[in-house]
Amino acid sequence: MTHRRIDKNKMNWQEVRTYYPQQWLLIEAVKARSESGKRILEQIAVIDTFTDSLSAMNAYKKLKSEDPIRELFVFHTGREELDISERRWLGIRGIR
């Protein structure tokens, strides 16, 4: 029997749930796509683990402020599926 080697920097959500049961996680999308107004995370990397949501959100805010381009999320692994709705941001145009 051969075991598939898991790269912990490129897992899917079900693999993450197996490795990090019942934990708050700060994750980053490694490979993602948009489909029907949803963000589908095909591969994710776990940045850090937390015992509570407040600590996870504080770490998220810090990393996001340092590098706003990164696609970061906070989730609890008790969640069976990731359901991420995309938001369209409407900017305010300056005076022309």
How would you characterize this protein structure?
The chain has 96 residues and is an alpha+beta fold. Strand 1 and strand 2 form a beta hairpin. A four-stranded antiparallel sheet has the order 3-1-2-4. The chain is built from two helices and four strands.
How much strand content do the residues show? 25-35%
Helix content: 10-25%
Main sheet specs: 4 strands, antiparallel
Give the mean pLDDT: 88
The arrangement of helices and strands along the chain is HEEHEE
Quaternary status: single chain
Compact description:
With about 100 residues, this protein is an alpha+beta fold. The protein contains 2 helices and 4 strands; from the N terminus they run αββαββ.
Set out the fold topology.
Layout lengths: L12 H7 L4 E12 L2 E13 L2 H14 L5 E5 L7 E2 L11
Antiparallel strand pairs: 1-2, 1-3, 2-4
Question: Which short descriptors sum up this protein?
Answer:
96 residues; alpha+beta
